[in-house]
Specification:
- By secondary structure, this protein is an alpha+beta fold.
- The protein has 2 domains: 279 residues, Zn peptidases (Aminopeptidase); 212 residues, Alpha-Beta Plaits (2-Layer Sandwich), CATH 3.30.70.360.
- It is 28% helix and 26% strand.
- Strands 9, 10, 11, 12, 13, 14, 15, 16, 17 and 18 form a 10-stranded antiparallel sheet that branches.
- The two termini are 22 Å apart.
Length: 517
């Protein structure tokens, strides 16, 4: 492996400064390509800029570069002389990211480049330093996978058979690229997904999932009283798959509980109305913030505010171990007639929030410690615009049992029937990826990992969505594994990549490429 020269790929001072920092481990080509992805706006649903950048990298390297109709890009690198008879291997990563800004920060993810920075490692067991963005998610999920694959494609010192570098689109939202990939686009019999987040593990299976949406018709009225705005912020949030079992609070559930308990203790049943209630954003993020507006009788305002403070403190005590940064903000408005949802509609809305399923539904009966089925209550929208007369609730269930996902949909249909809501028809499920312990690619990768690290890797199935199941559906017989460097708090402004784990992932991949027969 040759140490890379400084690159002209980077255009922002922040990215250039990080690349020049001596604390970044070799090979620097990984960081060159990764930082080029970091400074490129590439939130899910906005594929043009990152896709064209990757196509440009392929052409710059003089390699065969192709795009399919779904927006996936594949770059093919021929075998090293003498390795032409080796089987082809596809290295795959997705180029979109989950865009999340710190609370209170206005950030245009369609135009502004992220600002990377090297920080002290929060866990010295994984090295002295780590990489984060400044007040936004970093997009190491899965930009670092893109960086590793591009660096392998660029490295002319490696020995290997034919390589395909596959870069897919909109993994974080709809799995659009993997679901709609052109049949035969992947020529290789083996695929290594570089989207795992724990470097001591080799992933051999994952959960599937789908989206469900409930729409609840409601009525508005003019309610006389005091308008009060309440905001809940500062919860951890995080990935709704790999962190769903950690018991983190859902802002929608907590804010609904707060309003219910406060009005209950103030004997306000039938005497208040919600003006709005909004929380959640991305389907794969546990909601960290929510806000609402409520109208209560003017005569009850003082009592309501006192009880509200009391209930807020009770919630802080209940969640003090997990949600240390929980914060409530109240704003008292005018006493007047306010357009609000009438009490019956308000009651229906709050009841849905209170009983909406969220969290782990079932643990795997076969794999100890693995979540089999979960659901993320990811968004609630009760809008205060004049034209709005319905509430919307969004859910994102996951399961490693494809046959159980229709059961979850039926449970949500039962909820909809109970409250008089409409629900979307059974949507397309993106399938889970069934483990294959007899996979020869897995056997070789385990042996290689042990040679490099002196210990066995953990073999693991993850409760999150990886694209391997969809690739296998369109390319029957494809053998897959997933690996990657260590990162934590993805899909949040706390996202952290442990930089010293990246070279190990690179070495694992390049050694497997050299040894595979």
């Amino acid at each position: 492996m040759i140490k890379s020269k400084m690159s002209s790929h980077l255009t922002t001072a922040a990215a250039q400064s990080v690349l020049a920092d001596g604390r970044l481990p070799e090979p620097k080509a990984i960081w060159d390509y990764f930082l080029a992805m970091v400074e490129t706006p590439r939130g899910s649903g906005f594929p043009d800029l990152p896709r064209e950048k990757i196509i440009g990298f392929g052409k710059e390297l003089g390699l065969e570069t192709e795009r399919d109709e779904a927006g996936n890009v594949i770059i093919r690198k021929p075998a090293t002389p003498g390795y032409e008879s080796r089987p082809s291997v596809c290295l795959q990563a997705h180029y979109d990211m989950v865009t999340v800004a710190a609370e209170g920060l206005t950030f245009d993810f369609t135009k502004q480049p992220l600002v990377p920075r090297i920080v002290e490692s929060p866990d010295k067991a994984f090295g002295q330093y780590a990489l984060m963005a400044t007040d936004t998610s970093l997009g190491a999920d899965n930009g670092i996978g893109c960086g590793i694959v591009l660096a392998i494609l660029a490295d002319k010192t490696l020995k290997h058979g034919p390589i395909e570098g596959l870069f897919t689109t909109d993994e974080e939202t709809t799995m659009y690229g993997a679901t709609n990939i052109k049949k035969g686009f992947i020529k290789s019999p083996y695929l290594i997904n570089v989207d795992s987040e724990e470097d001591w593990r080799i992933t051999i299976g994952c959960a599937g999932g789908f989206e469900d949406e409930l729409t609840l018709p409601l009525k508005k009225d003019n309610i006389e009283g005091a308008a009060i705005r309440i905001e809940l912020k500062g919860l951890q949030g995080g990935h709704s798959g790999v962190e769903i079992h950690k018991g983190r609070a859902n802002a929608l559930k907590l804010l609904g509980q707060l309003i219910h308990q406060t009005t209950l203790h103030c004997n306000l049943e039938g005497k208040f109305g919600l003006q709005y209630f909004v929380g959640g954003d991305k389907r794969n993020v546990i909601p960290p913030n929510a806000r609402c507006g409520i109208v209560v009788p003017a005569a009850s305002k003082a009592e309501f505010m006192t009880e509200l403070k009391k209930q807020e403190e009770l919630l802080k005590q209940e969640w003090k171990t997990i949600e240390k940064d929980m914060k409530f903000i109240e704003t008292e408005g005018a006493i007047d007639k306010h357009v609000s949802y009438d009490y019956e509609s308000t009651r229906k809305f709050l009841d849905v929030v209170l009983i909406a399923p969220h969290g782990v539904m079932r643990m795997s009966p076969d794999v100890e410690g693995l979540v089999e089925t979960s659901i993320n209550f990811c968004k609630a929208v009760l809008c205060d615009k004049p034209e709005c007369h319905a509430a919307r609730f969004e859910f994102f269930p996951r399961s490693s049992d494809n046959d159980y996902m229709p059961v979850v949909h039926e449970q949500l249909k039962a909820l909809a029937r109970t409250v008089g809501a409409n629900i979307t028809d059974m949507p397309n499920i993106f399938p889970g990826w069934l483990p294959d312990t007899a996979n020869p690619l897995l056997t070789l990768s385990v042996e290689t990992y042990k040679e490099i690290h002196g210990k066995e890797p953990e073999i693991y199935a993850i409760h999150a969505g990886l694209e391997c199941g969809m690739f296998q559906a369109s390319h029957p017989g494809l053998k897959c594994i997933s690996v990657g460097p260590y990162m934590v708090d993805v899909h949040s402004p706390k996202e952290t990549l442990f930089i010293d784990t990246v070279p190990g992932s690179y070495k694992l991949l390049t050694t497997v490429l050299e040894k595979i027969h």
